[in-house]
Design brief:
Shape: globular
Helix content: 10-25%
Distance between the termini: 64 Å
Structural class: mainly beta
Order of helices and strands: HEEEEEEEEEEEEEEEHEEE
Largest sheet: 11 strands, mixed
Number of strands: 18
Length: about 260
C-alpha cells in the first residue's frame, strides 16, 4: 500500500515538474533570427513578423533600436500565441550584434569607383525590414583580417523607377575596405595587396541599414496612390569595367514591404 502511495506521489511530482518546464514536444527552437532591440517600456526584441519577444531574464548590452541576430526557444502551445503580438521566449546564447548603418541622401556617383571600394558579389534573397531597419546578407571576397564599412544611398531627385505601372524604389549599396595606418617602423604600406600568409576568403556578412525615413516617404506616396506596399530594389556594385574606371551594377529582385512592415 505504501509503495502505491509513493508511486502516486512521484507521478504527481513529475506532472507538476513537466507543467513548470513546459512540454518538450511543443518546444520550438529558432536560430539566427533578425531582431531589433527595445529597451522601454519593456526590454525585448521585435522580429520580422511584427511580434515582440521578451524574456524575464533578459540581459543585453545595447540601446533601443540596435540590431541583433538571436537564437531562442518558445512553447508553441502557449496561449499568448493566439491573438497576441507578444511572446515569452528563452534566449539561447548571447545575441550577436549586427552593424547598423545610416542611409545617405547624398547619392554616391554610381559611375565612379570609390577609393578602396569592395565589390559585392551577390545578395541573398533573405532580408528583413523591422521597425525602420533593413537587414541584408551580402557575399564578398576579402582578406581574412579585413573589415569593411558599408554605405547605402539613394537619388533624392529620382527615388523610383516605373515598371509595368508600378514604382520600384532604388537603394544603392557600396562597401569600402577599412585601411589602417601601419605602425611606425612596421613594414608594408597602407592599402597594399595581401601577403602570401593573408589569403582571400569568401565571406557572408550581415548588415542592417536605417531606411525608416526613406521608407516613410515612399509609403506616404504609395498610400496616396492607393497601394498597400512599397517595392524596393537594392542595387550593388558587383564588378568593374575592363579598365577598372567604373563599377558595373547588379540589382536584386524587388523587396516588397507591406504597410504593416512585413516583407515578401
Amino acid at each position: 500500500m505504501k509503495n502505491k502511495e509513493l508511486y502516486s506521489i512521484l507521478i504527481v511530482c513529475l506532472m507538476m515538474l513537466s507543467s513548470c518546464l513546459g512540454d518538450t514536444n511543443t518546444r520550438i527552437t529558432v536560430g539566427e533570427q533578425e531582431a531589433v532591440y527595445q529597451v522601454r517600456p519593456t526590454k525585448g526584441f521585435y522580429v520580422k513578423d511584427g511580434r515582440f519577444l521578451y524574456d524575464s531574464n533578459l540581459s543585453v548590452s545595447g540601446d533601443g533600436g540596435d540590431c541583433f541576430l538571436i537564437e531562442y526557444s518558445f512553447d508553441s502551445s502557449a496561449p499568448e500565441l493566439q491573438g497576441s503580438d507578444s511572446l515569452s521566449i528563452e534566449l539561447i546564447g548571447n545575441p550577436i550584434s549586427v552593424p547598423l548603418w545610416p542611409l545617405d541622401s547624398q547619392w554616391t556617383d554610381t559611375t565612379k569607383v570609390l577609393k578602396n571600394e569592395v565589390l559585392t558579389e551577390s545578395l541573398l534573397k533573405r532580408n528583413a525590414y523591422i521597425r525602420g531597419r533593413l537587414f541584408l546578407w551580402s557575399n564578398h571576397t576579402e582578406t581574412e583580417s579585413q573589415q569593411d564599412s558599408f554605405m547605402m544611398s539613394y537619388d533624392p531627385e529620382k527615388m523610383y523607377t516605373a515598371e509595368n505601372g508600378k514604382r520600384i524604389y532604388n537603394l544603392y549599396l557600396r562597401a569600402i575596405k577599412k585601411v589602417t595606418e601601419k605602425e611606425e617602423g612596421s613594414e608594408g604600406e597602407e592599402g597594399t595587396e595581401p601577403t602570401e600568409e593573408e589569403k582571400t576568403v569568401k565571406v557572408l556578412i550581415t548588415n542592417a541599414f536605417n531606411i525608416e525615413e526613406f521608407y516613410n516617404k515612399a509609403k506616404t506616396f504609395e498610400e496616396e496612390n492607393g497601394e498597400k506596399e512599397v517595392a524596393i530594389a537594392i542595387n550593388y556594385a558587383s564588378a568593374y569595367n575592363k579598365d577598372t574606371t567604373a563599377c558595373l551594377w547588379s540589382v536584386t529582385d524587388t523587396i516588397k514591404i507591406s504597410f504593416n512592415g512585413r516583407t515578401e
